[in-house]
Design goal:
Helix content is 45%, strand content 2%. The model is unreliable at 18-78 (pLDDT under 50). By secondary structure, the chain is mainly alpha-helical. It is built from eleven helices and two strands, in the order ααααβααβααααα. Helix 7 (167-191) crosses helix 11 and helix 8 (195-207) packs antiparallel against helix 10.
Amino acid sequence: MTIHKMDDNELDAALRAADPVARAEVDDLGAAALFGRLRDSEGRLDRAPFARRGPRRRLAVTGIVGAVALGVAIPAAASVLFGAQTGEYPPLVNDDGTLPTETDDTERIDLAADDFVEYTATIYPFWIGLPAGIDSDSVRIAAATEMSQEARSTVSPSGATGGVSQVTGLVSGFEYDARCLWIDYYLTATTEGEQSRQAHAADVIRGSLAWPATVASDGGNSVEHLSAIADAAEAGDTDVVRREFDQNCRVSLEEFGR
């Protein structure tokens, strides 16, 4: 038998083809991030501080304490598959005993990396259903491209460019985008007098309060705020719902051809 010794490029290609991430053991949030796409047939750290544009309240990568960790277990040999993965994780407790100000202990991701947009396909919550005619991957690419562009244009006081965010924060942002599309769907249905569509959208908005990353990154009464939006949608208070859309949503049905 002839044993072929693979060089680094061949090894990398083999790891990608084998897709070891798909065999990782994950909890509910990790499963939603990593396996969702498979289940949905339709559907370095001298960086500038970074928070995605809108909704700012949900997407800050610091200042949220005590959230639930992703708990993703990935084989060590395949733990870093993309340049966007820094391989760095914040501690659950700092050396001085204080709690860190990051979301949880999930990996820090380099938003300015060349393959950041590609990387997001491994964490995007494809399991979330979107309004008919909206392609999840198009939403992912648009959002990730915007984050990458903003990160590259952000300059820190030291002159460095770029930005990092944790996995949970990124997934939470993607969930917010999905919620915003349903909010837009609700408003459109209301304008068109389509009560059944309006009611369906209100149901989805209510259910979105339990989406894994939304719960995991809850801080500053964010879920309480979203609950008020769901209440307004169910009560037909379009002014409150529209205010949420105008102030905190960066995606719309029109952007994706609806």
